[in-house]
Amino acid sequence: MGETARLLLISLRPHQWTKNLILFAPLVFSRHLLERGPLLRALAAFGLFCILSSGVYVFNDLRDLERDRLHPVKARRPLASGALSPHLAAGVSACMMLGALGFSFWLNLAFGIVALAYVGLQIAYSLWMKAVVILDVFAIAGGFVLRAVAGAEAIAVPISSWFFICTLLLALFLALSKRRHELLLLEGAASTHRASLAEYTPSLLDQMIATVTAATIVTYALYTLSSETVARLRTDALKYTIPIVLYGIFRYLYLVYRRGEGGNPEMALVTDRPLVLAIFLYGAMVVWILYW
Question: In this predicted model, what pLDDT tens digit does every residue of 232-248 receive, in sequence order?
Fold first, then answer.
């Protein structure tokens, strides 16, 4: 029983819960971080999305069982290796998603609708969107955007248009980098693992990455300098975080192109020391600027 629980925990991929931290961004930028009520609702929203995303990961692994067995890394996952029962995993996945959705609607109607949209998008991605070129990376980015929207709905604050665009572009940047890593890792067997990979080439992905990288930097810079942002936050000091954002993006590009990383952005964001330091410094500066 203990071994089964351990294998099930691995399949839930708790290391990927870092993706859900974006739910706290609306809390921080709306200046409600130090208020008990909004903070508790944001923490509840984060917990619910961790459960939802884990349920989706198990569903995705069940859907890709045969393809994952041909992957050099994914073949070692509990389900793909045969160490964990698919029937048990399916039951746990269904209970987690249904239970978390029920509590999501209890927390907030709008939040529940966004959570349902997130699950629907992830299931659609697992069933067919991942096989459609370009649409697959937009589906991944859409998951990040829905997380950000959910964070705003959980505490009942409007989400800035600038923040929406920045989140979408940054998520596309990470998704395209992930596709590039998969394409190079699998080489000639890429199309057998995922149909959409047959339509990509390294040069095409490089052009896409360059486009969204430039767009992300410019959009964030305009966001910090816009009159709307300055009026809402009552400060223009966010512009001083632009160099840190630039460094963080350039560091990630270095990891993708020189270190061959990018397949697991959630791991790179917590294991690469210079990148971790940049993220910590950015967060500290934002909190200091907005609250003190």
Answer: 888 899 999 999 999 99
Q: Taking Cα atoms as reference points, which of 55, 61, 63 lies closest to residue 20?
A: 55
The CA-based angle 150-154-160, given to 5 degrees, is 60
- Whole-number Å distance between alpha carbons of 237 and 105: 37
Element (H, E) at 93: helix 86-107
DSSP 8-state class, residue 159: P
Contacts of 17 (CB under 8 A, 6+ apart): 50, 53, 54
In 108-241, which residue ranges form alpha helices assigned H by DSSP? 109-127, 135-154, 161-186, 190-193, 202-225, 227-233
pTM flag (> 0.70):
yes
Give dist(CA 253, CA 262) in Å, integer: 9
Give the separation between CA 101 and CA 116, rounded to whole angstroms: 7
Question: Would you state the pLDDT for residue 55?
Answer: 92
Q: Which of 269, 292, 265, 291 has its CA nearest to residue 280?
A: 269
